[in-house]
Amino acid sequence: MMVAMDGTLSFVKGHGTGNDFVVLPDPDGSLALTPGLVAALCDRRFGVGGDGVLRVVRTAAHPEVAHLAGEAEWFMDYWNSDGSLAAMCGNGTRVYARYLVEAGLADGPTVAVLTRAGVVVAEVGDDVAVAMPVPVVGGPAKADVGGVTFDGVAATCGNPNLVCPVPDLASLDLAAVADLDPAAFPESANVEFVTNEAPVDGADLHVAMRVIERGSGETLSCGSGACAVAAVALTGALGTQPREAGVVAIDVPGGRVTVTLTPDRCVLTGPAVLVASGEINLSRLRLS
């Protein structure tokens, strides 16, 4: 991606079940992203608006991962909306893969994408399915949100997560930042709040979820969080019969995703949509 002589920058806007991203095509790694620029782009009032930025860059062109160019052609350089880096974003990966295919940068339907959590493989069709890191369920932990303490179960899926069963999602006030024990979560974590829901066809379990993402606040969906929720749900921690494997339907405020989980495979499936493209006038952004 080149910045034009008039100071404009091309972008695409996409989302996966409402988890939205500013996609920056930068195949040759010519743009030097900064936390301030990312935060300005993601500002919902003074920028484009998004939960994060997906820079589309060839692995060989990014100094952080150039030595891994043989593993995947494309690197998803993902930044949270506050300008911090993240290792993995399940919905972001699905949007990224959709962009690669629609932009003609990958043939599809199978697309390998390098992330900071390793290589993941997406299948691009009407929906986009991505093989995520297999979640690892940990022990109990707590989160404090706005003075309310929630008990949960830790789980990692590229990113650290804390899955908290609650009786009711609608009554939660998730405007505050989640306060976590730094000994348990030295790099903080996404915090998911989960309820059991009535059975639906095609799924072994059906749950609903809201999430506070580290570096972004409450979002309409979180792919790695959904995978963590599925793994915790299958252990029986939400009061259901424990299962070694299964399909979990997960309703998020932005729609529904499904997670298919076995002991050695985790697949996140759902819509990934590109909704707009345009140019950003960099001189008019509010840079901090």
Automatic annotation (TrEMBL):
| Xref: PROSITE patterns | DAP_EPIMERASE (PS01326)
| Annotated localization | Cytoplasm
State the pathway, as annotated in the record.
Amino-acid biosynthesis; L-lysine biosynthesis via DAP pathway; DL-2,6-diaminopimelate from LL-2,6-diaminopimelate: step 1/1
Q: Which domain of life is it from?
A: Bacteria
Q: Which reaction does it catalyse?
A: (2S,6S)-2,6-diaminopimelate = meso-2,6-diaminopimelate
> What single Pfam family name could you report for this chain, choosing any that match?
DAP_epimerase
Its main localization is cytoplasm
Keyword list (alphabetical) reads: Amino-acid biosynthesis, Cytoplasm, Isomerase, Lysine biosynthesis
* Protein family according to the UniProt entry: Belongs to the diaminopimelate epimerase family.
Q: Which HAMAP family match?
A: DAP_epimerase
As for what it does, the entry says: Catalyzes the stereoinversion of LL-2,6-diaminopimelate (L,L-DAP) to meso-diaminopimelate (meso-DAP), a precursor of L-lysine and an essential component of the bacterial peptidoglycan.
Q: What is this protein called?
A: Diaminopimelate epimerase
The beginning of the lineage is: Bacteria, Bacillati, Actinomycetota, Actinomycetes, Micromonosporales
Q: Which gene encodes it?
A: dapF
